[in-house]
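Help! Submission page says 'invalid entity' but I think these are all valid:
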Amino acid sequence: MAEAPATGNVRKLIDDPTFPTQWTVVEEHLGHKVLRKEGESKELNVHGYAVGVDFDICIADGICITVCPTNVFDRMDIPSEQARMDNGTLNDSGKALLAIWKADPAREQDCIFCRACEIQCPVQAIKITEP
Ligand code: F3S
Ligand code: F3S
Ligand code: ZN
């Protein structure tokens, strides 16, 4: 049985005007920042600054990887997502996971700001910020 999320939990990173400038950088991962917003982020945080992907919202749809003309993203397995996947638990997108990986913006420095990923992500987990 899928667990229903508390209403109000559903978020879209693209709708948060405070990202990325007012979020806290918690670590670096493969040359990009990992950021979180207290009271908003769950355990997985957002990877990337120019190309921000909220791992608490990403459901592994994968269209971002398909459409990116400069191959910015890598699939990154998150083993701690297995239980959520198995149980059909909804994440902050309000939807269930399709897989346990997330789209990691491993080469965000290669982004040409076409915004195809941002537009096509079905759960609006991505926010693009031009320098
Ligand atoms: Fe690729 Fe998205 Fe940038 S599709 S080029 S990472 S805006
Ligand atoms: Fe995740 Fe959206 Fe890409 S769900 S894999 S960020 S298209
Ligand atoms: Zn990362």
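Support: the input was valid. A stray whitespace character was the problem, and the output above is from the cleaned input. The longest helix spans residues 82-87.
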